[in-house]
């Protein structure tokens, strides 16, 4: 492991000043960063601990303003009643011990679980070393993307929370030397394109300050399909938020996880679902299929096309309390 200095920032201004120096990386709960240091994914000159910054706490007005250093456990406790989709995405992520350390900001900044990206021995990976190639494309594509991938990278993003936030139309407040700006949750994670080494829309000199979640969404649900029942990343997941007029769908928002390098909103399906009964499984499945006409499965992951559609149908019907 490369030698680096460690310091603690106590103000946002100090953290931003440190970030302005090349070779600086931030650490919050450390549940990702410590692994990256051991695996050589990150090799900073300076590591700045930001856990003393005043970015904790959850404020409530018409929605929620969640400080970036709020732990996943704290957010889970606060959202069980008003935002089931958020609480369920957190409850099904990692383990209680990890959730007690891991922060909301760090969760959004976590990196792909592509096994080639995480490999102990270095293998070609454009995300890790631009221009080196993509081992997944010529190897095992079973866990990779079916939407939005490029010939340079086919990885998916692993955050469960990000998928729930995308369905809720949440936004990420960030601060940098040029001031503050807000990034929609649906645009925070970047598709690989020609530059898979860029993971999110956060600039290297910016800090996540908070996450804004709009009005409560009591009719919502997060469904996570994984290879074992706990302590496992999603093969595919679906977050659904619905409002009903009786049993008829007035508006629906659905985001999928495990299918792209960003939460994948099913916008065509969302339009087609308006006016459909929440109990009509066949009509719901037909509407959701409209968002899969541009799915591009790879050699080993055609199963995700069917699995993701079924997950979306079930998440939506559960959110709407279908009989
Ligand atoms: C075994 C294991 C299982 C897991 N399972 C799941 C799962 O099922 N679902 C899931 O969603 N996640 C899962 N995770 C990921 C986990 O949620 C993340 O590791 C955690 O949320 C990262 O938060 P942290 O505070 O520890 O970040 P750190 O490790 O401290 O930092 C991670 C990255 O975020 C950056 N960062 C942190 N805070 C900020 C900020 N405020 N502004 C800008 N950058 C920031 C750091 O610079 C670093 O690049 C798992 C992790 C492990 C180790
Ligand atoms: S899919 Fe992306 S992360 Fe995985 S090996 Fe290819 S370039 Fe690397």
TrEMBL record:
Keywords: Oxidoreductase. The lineage of its organism: Bacteria, Bacillati, Actinomycetota, Actinomycetes, Pseudonocardiales. PROSITE patterns: FAD_PCMH. This is Xanthine dehydrogenase YagS FAD-binding subunit. SUPFAM superfamilies: CO dehydrogenase flavoprotein C-terminal domain-like, FAD-binding/transporter-associated domain-like. It holds the Pfam family FAD_binding_5. Residues 1-218 form the FAD-binding PCMH-type domain. GO terms for molecular function: FAD binding; oxidoreductase activity. It comes from the Bacteria. InterPro entries: CO_DH_flav_C, CO_DH_flav_C_dom_sf, Diverse_Substr_Oxidored, FAD-bd_PCMH, FAD-bd_PCMH-like_sf, FAD-bd_PCMH_sub1, FAD-bd_PCMH_sub2, Mopterin_DH_FAD-bd. SMART domains: CO_deh_flav_C. It comes from Actinocrispum wychmicini. The keyword Chaperone does not apply.
């Amino acid at each position: 492991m490369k030698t680096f200095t460690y310091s603690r920032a106590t103000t946002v201004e100090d953290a931003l000043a440190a970030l302005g120096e090349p070779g600086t990386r931030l650490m919050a709960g450390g549940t990702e960063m410590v692994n990256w240091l051991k695996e050589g994914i990150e090799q900073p000159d300076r590591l700045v601990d930001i856990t003393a910054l005043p970015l904790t706490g959850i404020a409530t007005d018409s929605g929620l303003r969640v400080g970036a250093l709020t732990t996943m456990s704290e957010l889970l406790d606060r959202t069980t009643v008003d935002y089931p989709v958020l609480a369920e995405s957190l409850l099904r992520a990692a383990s209680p011990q990890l959730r007690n350390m891991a922060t909301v900001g760090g969760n959004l900044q976590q990196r792909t679980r592509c096994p080639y990206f995480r490999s102990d021995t270095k293998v070609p990976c454009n995300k890790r070393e631009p221009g080196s190639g993509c081992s997944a494309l010529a190897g095992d594509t079973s866990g990779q993307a079916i939407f939005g991938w490029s010939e340079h990278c086919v990885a998916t993003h692993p955050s469960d929370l990000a998928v729930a936030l995308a369905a809720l139309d949440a936004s990420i407040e960030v601060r940098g030397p040029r001031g503050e700006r807000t990034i929609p949750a649906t645009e925070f994670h970047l598709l690989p394109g020609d530059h898979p080494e860029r993971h999110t829309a956060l600039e290297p000199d910016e800090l996540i300050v908070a996450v804004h979640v709009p009005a409560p969404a009591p009719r919502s649900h997060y469904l996570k399909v994984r290879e074992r029942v706990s302590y496992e990343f999603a093969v595919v997941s679906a977050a659904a938020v619905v409002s009903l007029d009786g049993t008829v769908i007035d508006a629906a928002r659905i985001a999928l996880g495990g299918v792209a390098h960003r939460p994948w909103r099913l916008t065509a399906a969302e339009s087609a679902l308006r006016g459909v009964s929440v109990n009509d499984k066949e009509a719901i499945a037909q509407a959701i299929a409209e968002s899969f006409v541009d799915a591009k499965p790879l050699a080993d992951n055609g199963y995700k096309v069917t699995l993701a559609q079924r997950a979306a149908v079930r998440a939506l019907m559960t959110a709407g309390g279908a009989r």
